[in-house]
Design brief:
CATH topology: Lipovitellin-phosvitin complex, beta-sheet shell regions
Helix content: 10-25%
Number of helices: 3
CATH superfamily: Lipovitellin, beta-sheet shell regions, chain A
Strand content: over 45%
Structural class: mainly beta
Radius of gyration: 21 Å
Shape: globular
Length: 241
């Protein structure tokens, strides 16, 4: 009887460790999205940027959802060719230098735009539009998903892959399930960059198990662009308001 109990317990434990990853957005829910990005090309250029956004779920129908996303704040510090540029969208013109004012004028259309996106519960963006239309913003919406879930259930040690083509730069991601607990799923991220740039990808993603939402992700890319080494780091945190 003890052996039978142990065998049953082991099988139940294995079954519980198998999870079907799906996005379970709630209609009307609003999320605060904070993204930090840094790029370093040595003496050529370095940049740090922080973007805060509000994401609202407008509708949920079976396995699809509609959302809108608005920028709430943006800051940037860049050093290029010996020139330093600093920008903070929350500051007035009086608080910015001439370079900051120019950057504010360039970023103003983006900060006023609204991104509308339709996606499915695997994390795929089906369609996206920007109102008013701002060049490049639609690409941002289509590339906003940092993980697309597999159709099959996953378990610790399992892997799946995803590929993105962003204007000639191909990114091949490999996701490995590191751990599964009652409240979260942790993924290790690896991969490679090819095409116009070459390099490697590493990082990690923490997924809230109940909602299927990636609440904390970090992606590192070490690349060579036109023979110049570039290190990029993108961190994104998503929290329900």
């Amino acid at each position: 009887m003890l052996i039978l109990f142990l065998v049953i317990s082991a099988n139940l434990s294995l079954a519980q460790d198998s999870v079907l990853l799906r996005l379970n957005y709630e209609k009307g829910a609003t999320y605060d999205v904070s993204m930090e990005m840094s790029q370093n090309m040595g003496a050529v250029m370095s940049m740090g940027m922080t973007i805060n956004m509000d994401l609202k779920v407008l509708d949920v129908t079976e396995d699809t959802y509609d959302s809108e996303m608005k920028f709430t704040n943006m800051t940037m510090d860049m050093l290029q060719g010996g020139q330093a540029i600093s920008f903070d969208s929350s500051k007035s013109d009086d608080e910015l230098d001439e370079a900051g004012k120019m950057m504010k004028a360039q970023m103003a259309p983006m900060l006023k735009a609204v991104i509308y996106a339709k996606g499915n519960n695997l994390g795929e963006v089906i369609e996206a539009k920007v109102e008013p239309n701002v060049m490049g913003m639609e690409d941002l919406a289509n590339q906003s998903s940092n993980v697309v879930y597999p159709k099959e259930a996953i378990k610790v040690g399992g892997t799946w892959s995803m590929s993105k083509n962003q204007k000639g730069m191909v990114m091949d991601f490999i996701y490995t399930v590191k751990s599964i607990t009652n409240d979260k799923i942790v993924l290790d991220l690896s991969g490679k960059v090819s095409g116009m740039s070459t390099g490697s990808i590493s990082g990690s993603i923490i997924i809230e198990r109940a909602s299927g939402i990636p609440v904390d992700s970090q992606i590192n890319m070490d690349m060579f662009v036109s023979g110049q080494e570039m290190k990029t780091k993108v961190t994104m945190i998503m929290a329900k308001k």
